[in-house]
Specification:
It is built from six helices and seven strands, in the order E-H-E-H-E-H-E-H-H-E-H-E-E. The protein is of the alpha/beta class and about 180 residues long.
Length: about 180
């Protein structure tokens, strides 16, 4: 049976490093599902640093969308995979189409959130079906002040509810603070 581990934390809290170290400590073939797209110099640099931090022997899958439809294929070549990260993946779905975020209806926001949560449920369901161990990285974005614009509030709310669902579906959950992991579940 597969094991699902979620690692959350704030920006630069050490969550990706902790997740990668979990993989390094395990036996078997390892993989990395990268959700980021290099849309600016900052993201290009971040991707480059993430690539440099993991061993060359890990197979990389660049999947900004529709991750669940690739889990069977991934499970044929990997025993354990890190998915980095759900909040970037959620952003990809939110910005797949252009919306007027100040005018978008709550009904459309709910549909986008349902799409994100459904895809995450499918990722975990298929990982269990194909016996793929999965370490999922996500950001904790709701610990600060209430954002001043609607898009940021929508994103924060969706990320918070997505993280709650991830935690519910995971076997283990960790939070990293200042590079120190704490086991929550």
């Amino acid at each position: 049976m597969s094991k699902i581990i979620t690692v959350t934390g704030g920006a630069r809290s050490g969550k990706s490093s902790f997740g990668e170290n979990l993989l390094k400590k395990t036996q078997g073939k390892k993989g990395y599902i990268a959700t980021a797209t290099p849309f600016d110099d900052g993201m290009k640099d971040r991707i480059k640093n993430h690539q440099a931090s993991r061993p060359n022997s890990w197979q990389t899958f660049e999947l900004p969308y529709e991750i669940s439809s690739h889990i069977n294929e991934i499970s044929r070549s990997c025993d354990i995979v890190i998915l980095d990260c759900i909040t970037v993946f959620s952003s990809n779905i939110l910005f797949e189409k252009e919306y007027d975020w100040e005018q978008i209806s709550y009904e459309k926001i709910s549909l986008l959130e349902e799409k994100i949560i459904h895809e995450i449920q499918q990722i975990i369901e298929k990982a269990r079906q194909y016996n793929l161990d999965l370490v999922i990285i996500t950001n904790e974005v709701g610990s600060g002040i209430v954002p001043g614009n609607r898009l940021s509030r929508v994103y924060r709310d969706i990320a918070g509810r997505t993280n709650q669902k991830l935690s519910e579906l995971s076997d283990e959950v960790y939070v990293t603070i200042s590079g120190i992991p704490l086991k929550l579940k």
